[in-house]
Amino acid sequence: MRSAGWRQAVAATAAGLLLGGCAALPEMPPAVPEDIVPTLAAPSLSAEGSDQLSPDGFDAVQRMAVRIRNVGCDALSTGSGFAVDEHTLITNRHVVADSSALQVSTYDGRDLDVSAASTAALADLAVVRTEDPLPSFPRLADDDPEQGDEVTVVGYPAGGRLTVTAGSVIGTTTDPLHENLGEVLVTDAPVEPGSSGSAALDEAGDVIGVVYAKTTDGRSLLVPQSTLRGMLDDASAFTTLEPC
């Protein structure tokens, strides 16, 4: 656990935190398997009812991440997300906000039709439902990580290539963007604009948090899995996303 002074320092560096908001970004490049560029080795991750590798040779870590394109009324932006079941994605509220349409693509270049989306008022979280089945989904960890635990982030920074980065949990801090939320995780796993909504995984490949922001000194902030799990269990936590 870090000192109060350290927590204040993290909060003080929180200007410009959001990683995938509605600022205009370049057109997304074609999503093809050759775009997969892990920067570090990722944990193995298996989905229920599926083998570790799909017929095309991609593992579940690569298959569970999606790229989200927000076609807004005034701008285009991109973010990341991950599946929690066959038709449900988790991402950030600011990734899907102010949208006229959401476009979801998988690791192998498939575009999935979105049937509904909802956002949380308390935390920077959103749920997206797809009509088409998702290729793979992880499980949520049973417990939040401890300081020093390893963490792996899987997402699509800048709406480009699928990237896997690694680091460790530094500690916790009071969420600098949503004071009522409480504690969030701080890690040194590298993230960039477009990484918002990425899954953060532990050594077993279970989700321990959702990337939603970074500090100006390069640390990444995560909504803990315990917060996500509690909100998914509360039907009143999310409200339907209305088009802009």
Automatic annotation (TrEMBL):
Pfam families on file: Trypsin_2 (PF13365)
GO terms classed as biological process: proteolysis
InterPro entries assigned to the protein according to its UniProt record, in alphabetical order: Peptidase_S1_PA, Peptidase_S1C
Cleavable signal peptide: 1-23
Gene Ontology terms, MF aspect: peptidase activity
Entry keywords, A to Z: Hydrolase, Protease, Signal
Keyword Protease attached: yes
Stated name of the protein: S1-C subfamily serine protease
Species of provenance: Isoptericola halotolerans
